[in-house]
Amino acid sequence: xxxxxxxxxxxxxxxxxxxxxxxxxxxxxxxxxxxxxxxxxxxxxxxxxxxxxxxxxxxxxxxxxxxxxxxxxxxxxxxxxxxxxxxxx
Length: 89
Prior knowledge:
Layout (H helix, E strand, L loop, with lengths): L3 H27 L2 H6 L22 E2 L4 E2 H10 L11
Antiparallel strand pairs: 1-2
């Protein structure tokens, strides 16, 4: 489980990105890169980290399912993810 502060910080970044998305788009279209630099650093979408929806783990994130590889494996073996089963040949 990730620290609560890391998860909260990432959520705050997501809110900031949403808040400034339209303004960033307008500044980019106008080519005003000095205006872009004056926006908060966390307004950039690249600052948001993909995290597991269950544990908050940042590494081993599977984007299609929104969870980490560890939780994915546990849930797949328990049959909680439809259409996913362990491979055997």
